[in-house]
Input
Amino acid sequence: MTPHPLLEVRDLTVEFSTEEGPVRAVRGIDFTVERGRTLGIVGESGSGKSVTSLAVMGLHRGATVTGSARLDGTELVGAPDERLRTLRGRRMAMVFQDALTALHPYFTVGDQIAEAYREHFGGTRRAALARAVDVLGDVGIPEPARRADEYPHQFSGGMRQRAMIALALSCEPDLVIADEPTTALDVTVQAQVLELLMRLQQERGLGIVMITHDLGVIARVADDVLVMYGGSAAEQAPADTLFTTPRHPYTRGLLDSLPRLDAERGTELRSIPGSPPSLLAPPAGCAFHPRCPRHAARPDARCTGDRPPLRTVADGHRSACVHDEVTA
Amino acid sequence: MTTETAPLTDAADPGAPDALLSVRDLGMTFPGPRGTLRRRPGIRAVDGVSFDVRPGETLGLVGESGCGKSTTGRMLVRLLDPTAGRVSFRGQDITRTPQHRLRPLRSRFQMIFQDPFASLNPRQTVQQIVAAPLRAQGESRQRIRAEVRDLVQLVGLAPEHLERYPHQFSGGQAQRIGIARALATRPELVVADEPVSALDVSIQAQIVGLMERLQAELGVAYVFIAHDLAVVRHISHRVAVMYLGRIVEIGDQQQVYEHPAHPYTKALLSAVPLPDPAAERTRERIVLLGDPPSPANPPSGCTFHPRCPKAQELCRTEAPLLTPDGPGRQVACHFPEA
Output
């Protein structure tokens, strides 16, 4: 029997019904995360990157999810709540941007981690608390025994983020989905938290999905990258390939519009005209075509027909641009 | 005010003769929380900040949260009254000018804010928003109409946008409205507080490009406040790095970024992840320990010493002064990088 990939997502679609009609936030996304690897999902507001992760975790309130998401072979889409509850925390866990929304203000940090642990493993409260102190130490919180007795508001931003990572890791999950985990942090603290995630991944063989708008963070941690735009995949490639030879005009535009510390002096920023599309009234065809320089130069009926799917353009490299020719 | 750090330039220094804006020994101490018997000591958010801004240039003000960069920005345009030091605009001390006498000068320095929606009145049309500073100057209705039309085009909006309300715009467009309003009176200085940090990456570049073009066309000077070091590098001619209420390093952009002299500047730059996986794998990174300290309880001596990889005994006891370190740069460190 061949082992299953840790997370295998196929044709995942998420639709919300709103007063103004149905909104398709995610349209047919595919990706795979292996143990010990990090998939970066990058996109701007409304790209569907966060909704994708919530749908995988079964945390999408009121949305209709279709397609498939298998965690080590177990189907998550349409799974009963109890099964998802068992899997969440135990096999897959989530780290959010804002630790204050994930940690309860009325309970001490140690109690919350202990509670999560007992939910899955049972045992005595005392044993669970000891375990909480251990994981707080693992994530680099100084004096973990003392800090376990404190409340979330007594922690600094960086320490709270570590505490949330400790909570996520307390039951030793195989998969961690981190949604903008360092966006609210100062850059020196961000460096510490990214370092921590990478160390824990090495020690435990975690699969990580890192969702962010920050291409620097992607370059730092990701092995593979999925670029999302308007609810669809625009491009998918190993990280090195994506940054050296981006194929989709959106990815290229994003990289060209980025001010960089390593740029030649006097490099001009080339911005992408227009704004990301509204999910309520998405453009027909390729969601990027109204802003696309290729479409402007060479209008093509395929850009405005159906939404173009990802096509393989080189080994392990897929782009959803109809103008992209296969090179390898 | 008693400081253990005599500033490089004291409050009597008039500043460079060609300076548009001169800031000397600027300080802001917020009142401390009420204790049982008396107030606890104040929180020194900004302490002994001095710099000049020349006409038409961009001074970048960078630092992490709580470093006092926004408080400094607000004091420059008198949205906050400093508790110490002095701000001069074209040689005229505006630190204690009463607000009503400040009004004629207000047209010459303006501000742009981080959240474009929060800074625009939701019940006013674009026409009304952009016209407000012109009305305050007592311009005629006809002039105002013509001016507002020009302004919205200048910032890349269309005339049909004039009758719309802020909620009908995207974040990037709303920031354009904020910029049009700030430029309405053709100011010589605009203080921009995190003007692009709430925007998507693809939109950030549009606004940065717009601000650069407007500077070239109108000769306006910017104080550009941001936590994003890459954006600041891109737009600034000179850069000041702040830590816990003080400037730790100030100098020409190229010098500060390519040869940082203060260990904090160096660590800060090395912590920014580059969008280049190959470089990220091999890069030397200085990971600072701990979080930035609270201004309510600043460390002794050099306030950076608990996190500084180079800290020595002297750093624990004595705060370093901001002193010249080669041409066009000042640094506040006992042991600056060579």
